[in-house]
Amino acid sequence: MPDDMAVQVTMYLNEGDQWHHRPLHMEILNYLRQENVYGATAFHAVAGFLGRNRVKTAHMVEAGGKLPVVIIFVDREEHVNRVLPTLKEMAAHRLIVRENVVIEQGNLE
Q1: CA gap 65, 75 in Å, rounded
Q2: Which of 19, 13, 16, 76 is nearest to 50 (CA)?
Q3: Cα–Cα distance, 67 to 57 (Å, whole number)
Q4: Domain parsing of the chain, residue ranges
Q5: Strands, DSSP E only, in 1-109?
Q6: Architecture of the CATH domain 4-103
Q7: Tens digits of per-residue pLDDT, 5-64?
Q8: Which residues, at least 6 apart from 45, have a Cβ–Cβ distance to it below 8 Å?
Q9: Nearest-CA neighbor of 52 among 82, 85, 95, 91?
Q10: Long-range contact list for 46-50, CB < 8 A, 24+ apart?
């Protein structure tokens, strides 16, 4: 249905972040899939910074584990409300942003 409302969540991580000794971004994606969230994508940055630290680039030898990874997912508010407590636990030290969005095309079915 056009102009339907949804919630978009953006999570700002580092590639070196882990959850139970596994890459955090993959554990989050697996969790979201397990919880039947409509869709999620992880973007691996070629450059960026988190927490007012200096800019890291893929060309810097010492950048290993420090490049940003951003996860974005969209779903209905009730689904987001259900998964957010676990995500906050998994990424307790990272920024999570939530915003209401309008679905201009497509649907969440």
Answers
A1: 29
A2: 13
A3: 7
A4: 4-103
A5: 4-14, 18-19, 22-23, 39-44, 47-48, 56-57, 68-75, 95-103
A6: 2-Layer Sandwich (3.30)
A7: 999 999 999 889 999 999 999 999 999 999 999 999 999 888 777 777 777 776 654 545
A8: 67, 68, 69, 70
A9: 95
A10: 50/12, 50/14, 50/94, 50/95
